[in-house]
Write a structure and sequence with these properties.
Chain B: It is found in: Cytoplasm. The complex is a heterodimer of chains A (96) and B (157). Chain A has 96 residues and is of the alpha/beta class. In chain A, 42% of the residues lie in helices and 25% in strands. The chains are: A alpha/beta (96), B alpha/beta (157). The interface between A and B is medium-sized, with 22 and 29 residues.
């Protein structure tokens, strides 16, 4: 089971939508993943390997040097984009 | 559920705005008038975007304007504002913005069901056609209600 944090600034809007779409992708591809949803404040206490967020937030986290696999999504309605990028993240951490 | 959160008084069509700040102010104004959010909530959306960039432009032409609930989200509500002409929000991937959905969510999880229906709406091409063509909020509400009830009966088999 791979833990994924879906986060946005407020933790009530975009991250929730992203979580809904990510869960659809996970179900379609039968990935063994646990999705946790929160605001960025909880990033420091998150112990999983992957963080999924909108692309501008992702760029910022990368600049800050956050030691996680950071996935930035431009269009959170686009399941193809979500699938491609999360699949690559799974590959990079050695799963799948 | 979503049809209880988006209500007709919160829908504004073909709004003219001078820039993205003006667009957010105008989009938020109906929620302020309705008592769903405080004026500070709308200001906070703008302040956050100034600080962090247009983080709420979530898909091509779509902005989900929202801020942390502590900024002044009183009741669960969502406004729809269409912009004509569309406005640049400085989000290269998804500009220009035509549709601003202003969300007020007083707690983190109670709106999960509504957001699921909202995501489903946003994933339907027909929704944007209706947003573009509608001349009244009533037409948009009728579309939302029919879509939601169709999906529910599908789910029930």
């Amino acid at each position: 089971m791979v833990k994924v944090l879906v986060a946005c600034r407020a933790g009530v809007g975009s991250s929730l939508m992203l979580k809904i779409k990510l869960n659809e992708v996970i179900a379609e591809h039968k990935w063994n993943m646990e999705v946790i949803h929160s605001s960025l404040d909880e990033l420091s206490s998150f112990d999983g390997p992957i963080v999924v967020t909108l692309s501008d937030v992702a760029d910022e986290l990368k600049e800050e040097g956050v030691k996680k696999e950071i996935v930035g999504i431009r269009n959170l309605l686009d399941k193809k984009e979500i699938y491609t990028k999360v699949a690559k993240a799974l590959q990079d951490i050695g799963v799948n | 559920m979503i049809e209880k959160i988006i209500t007709e008084p919160l829908i504004q069509l073909k709004v003219k705005a001078t820039d993205w700040r003006d667009a957010i102010q105008k989009a938020g104004s109906v929620l302020v008038e309705d008592g769903d959010v405080t004026p500070n909530y709308v200001d906070e959306i703008i302040r956050s975007a100034e600080k962090f960039g247009p983080y709420f432009v979530i898909a091509p032409h779509v902005a989900l304007a929202h801020a942390p609930r502590q900024a002044g989200a009183n009741t669960l509500a969502m406004g729809i504002t269409t912009l004509d002409p569309p406005i640049d929000f400085h989000n290269e991937a998804n500009d220009p913005v035509r549709y601003v959905f202003t969300l007020s969510a007083p707690d983190a999880d109670s709106h999960l069901k509504a957001m699921q229906e909202f995501v489903r709406l946003l994933s339907m091409d027909g929704f944007y056609d209706v947003l573009d063509r509608a001349t009244s909020g009533q037409e948009i509400m009728a579309y939302i209600e029919s879509t939601v009830s169709t999906n529910r009966s599908d789910c029930n088999g």
